[in-house]
Amino acid sequence: MTGVKVEITVNGRTTTDEVEPRLLLAHYLRENVGLKATNIGCDTTSCGACTVLLDGESVKSCTVLAVQADQLAVTTMEGLAGESGDSLDHPVTAAFRAEHGLQCGFCTPGMVMAVTGLIAENPDLDERAVREGLEGNLCRCTGYHNIVRAALVAAGKDPDAEQEIEALSDDARTAPGFSVGSGS
Amino acid sequence: MSIMGTRVVRVEDPVFLTRGATYTDDLTDERLSGALHLTLVRSPIAHATITSIDVEAAREAPGVVAVLTGADIDLPAPLLFGGAPKQMVRPWLATERVRFVGEPVAAVLTEERYQGPDAAELVDVDYEPLPAVVDVREALKDENLLFPDAGTNTCSVYNKEDPDPDFFADCEVVVTREIINQRVAAASLETRAASAVWGDDGRCTLFVSNQNAQGARDEVAGWLGVDASQIHVILPDVGGGFGAKIGADPEFALVAWLARHTGRPVRWSESRSENMTGMVQGRDQRQTITIGGSRDGRVKAYRLDVIADAGAYPRLGVFLPVFTRMMAPGTYDIEKVDSRATVVVTNTTSTAAYRGAGRPEATSAIERAMDLFAAEIGMDPAEVRKINVVAPEKFPFTTKGGVEYDSGEYAKAIDLALEASDYATLREVQKARRERGDAKQIGIGVSSYVEITGGGAFVENASVEVHADGTALVWTGTSPHGQGHATAWAMLASEQLGIPVEKITVRHGDTDHVPEGGGTMGSRSLQTGGVAVHQASLELIDLAKQRAAEILEASVEDLEVDTTNAAIVVRGAPGSPTVTFAQLAEREELKVKTVWDGKKATFPFGSHVAVVEVDTETGKVTVERIWAVDDAGPVLNPLLCEGQRHGGIAQGIAQAMLEEVVFDPDGQPLTATFADYGFPSAAELPSFDLVTMETPTPINPLGFKGIGEAGTIGSAPAVQSAVVDALAHLGIRHIDMPTTPLRVWEAIQDAVKEDG
């Protein structure tokens, strides 16, 4: 198969490679660049484990071809860890740890990037906005309770107060019956 | 100050939140360099004879190193569950007959990952379809047999005695109903994966995603016909298991066999759609519940008849009705309890453990029965429960199932849940909505549950070693996959030794380092592996005291641990010489390995109250609130404990209202992707209200019971009950799980029709 040359900035670093046109961005990141935090959990763009930022916007990297990311900038969870690669100073990762927003860790890199994207889009989040904003990211371990808290903390909110407001709210919960993989 | 009961944040997280965990498919281990990628060709038909398999075109595809069929594999087909009829073996790769959609038929090995599916598409298999057996009652008829040689589709019968026709003779009121505890998928976010490489020493290093390295080693060795010492199983980080990663999958042994056959490392990582047909699934019991008692609310007799679906090839699912029968009476003190179960094979994916594994099925059945009984006599369902639960003074209590409940205060748990939810007010809100005739009605469900944790595997080992630099290393035979043992076990050692948590490393899941171990399943870890770490720490202190006695010139009896300095000191002699664990380790290896045997299971319990809103025009259910009392004894780390409860509650709610693995009448799976399967997102769930209650068990010195599955067991019946309760005024008494909009809407239409 003929290769196509791509140049993709990943976490601030320029990467180039010759890739098959069908190569998924998720595989490019994992195999070609060697960044393994980004996981792949489904075949249908439903689970969001592969969520990364593409020029600042959260996308599911299993549904983006590497060639589509040519000349664009990708941020993965590794990109939040600072120069040292082990910093937990980023407000989102710090909140995930403080609120126990992860268990097995598989959804975590995608969830962290989805939350990062969500806060960038809407800094004034409440619990319902977080829950609906994360509708495209599945977690099997946490029941989302602490992920939602982590997102609220990262957005500068008091999670106890927000949960209280949501619990007492009569507002319609507009979510669909289950995830239909509508994308981030 | 004691670290016990404090909210220590996880030591696992810094890596998980920066470079990410290392799952099997992430491994860059140099032993795996140059590995071949395995792609399995899987049957698209549920039941068929294979008339031909043509692999020639696939062999010519780019990057293909080998394409193999069952004819190439020189291993006997394994029986995956020892108690099943011996003819019900699963071929490594099917050659004559396929029995479920997703059954492996051919193995394709390629140099690169993307080449595998390309080549697999070129494998040409001709199938002659056979009638598929999907329904368990059809299976029972034995008209179409999956294994003609076995002569039956039944793989196990528990309790062959005929039911006593006079069992309910002295009951004023008897209610009976068939209900379904539907099949669900474990759906761990990480699918199954394995990598194998054989060394020059003739040993296989096998990396797998699993809940028990030692069990996987023994099974794989047995299937390959080699000694267990020839297989070195290593578990990298595991992306969730929920019971479905207990025991080895035959694919693991196939990967090892292929690595030996080709002389190259082999990697395998399945896709989600393979996972949704290939990985074991949970539940799937058709239950007939019959409950009898008097109009004053006292239940006198309860019978549970189960037909369970093992799927195509019997696995652990064959055993789980044993747990269901053991826990049949739940939290209730019922004079007469009777149960039986029959397990059959069908042309579907095999069943095995899923969070709760046999106990949620028991709880849902008895809780539905209690609701039906309450409705029949016109009594509040919470009240009926309180009348019938085992009284606190009766513990330890031996049930009619022959099980000894260790400790419990079941009525108190119900009261706590009712109080937290302000049950009386909820009933008033419900009454007002009914009187107004609102389209959106609310329902309130109350569950009472007890379950078994650490059932069957009471023994666990641990080693604790302190190093000269003041750090410590703990090895455990348990096997976390999200639970946070690295933090919790470090807390247990730290509590005794005074070494800070961040200086204690907890390791697991390597059969060369820990040859024995029961892994993590059945909510067993804290009460077995955790207690073993506690015991090992105490034994390490004894050893340290013996050595310190000489150095400090004091008798052992006069020595104690100074946890502030991680040192041995002379009691009541401030300023006298001391020696730290690190200093002792500098002189001589300071290490203890111990085995803890709890000898018995423990029985956590609790009560949940769920409030749902049901749109009577559309059938849509929304869970508004859930209050959960989950009593598993003293809590080591509330952060971790709450996390387990949250996840469990979510999975129970999901079973009650969303999830179901569906096969059409031909055995075609209709829920083979996450776009089709009702996996809940954050948007479908509320936050959870947790209520604290801690009743210790006498079974171990720390009073710990298990918490991993409790939430699931308590929440599913509470939510199901709430949905039915929302529609009780229409005369509706039961709706099967999952209470999807369609099913709820149909129930409403039927009720309205009957009424009109």
Which features would summarize this protein structure in a list?
heterodimer, A: 184 residues, alpha+beta, Ubiquitin-like (UB roll), DNA polymerase, domain 1, 2 domains, five-stranded mixed β-sheet, B: 756 residues, Aldehyde Oxidoreductase, domain 3, Aldehyde Oxidoreductase, domain 4, 3 domains, seven-stranded mixed β-sheet, 28% helix, globular, iron-sulfur (chain A), oxidoreductase (chain A), 2 iron, 2 sulfur cluster binding (chain A)
Summarize the structure.
Chain A is of the alpha+beta class. Chain A is built from 6 helices and 5 strands, in the order ββαβββααααα.
Topology summary:
The complex is a heterodimer of chains A (184) and B (756).
Chain A: E1 4-10, E2 13-19, H1 25-32, E3 51-54, E4 57-60, E5 73-75, H2 91-98, H3 108-121, H4 127-133, H5 145-154, H6 159-168
Parallel strand pairs in A: 1-5
Antiparallel strand pairs in A: 1-2, 3-4, 3-5
Helix pairs in contact in A: 2-5, 5-6
Chain B: H1 13-16, E1 36-42, E2 48-54, H2 56-59, E3 64-69, E4 97-98, E5 104-110, H3 115-120, E6 124-129, H4 136-140, E7 154-158, E8 173-185, E9 193-198, E10 204-208, H5 213-224, E11 231-234, H6 250-262, E12 266-269, H7 272-278, E13 281-293, E14 299-311, H8 320-326, E15 336-345, H9 359-377, H10 381-388, E16 397-398, E17 404-405, H11 410-421, H12 423-436, E18 440-450, E19 459-466, E20 472-476, H13 485-497, E21 504-508, H14 525-552, E22 559-562, E23 567-570, E24 579-580, H15 581-587, E25 590-597, E26 605-615, E27 621-631, H16 638-657, E28 689-691, H17 710-726, H18 741-755
Parallel strand pairs in B: 1-12, 10-11, 14-15, 20-21, 27-28
Antiparallel strand pairs in B: 1-5, 2-4, 2-6, 3-5, 7-15, 8-13, 9-10, 9-12, 13-14, 16-17, 18-26, 19-20, 19-25, 22-23, 23-24, 26-27
Helix pairs in contact in B: 5-6, 8-9, 9-17, 13-14, 16-17
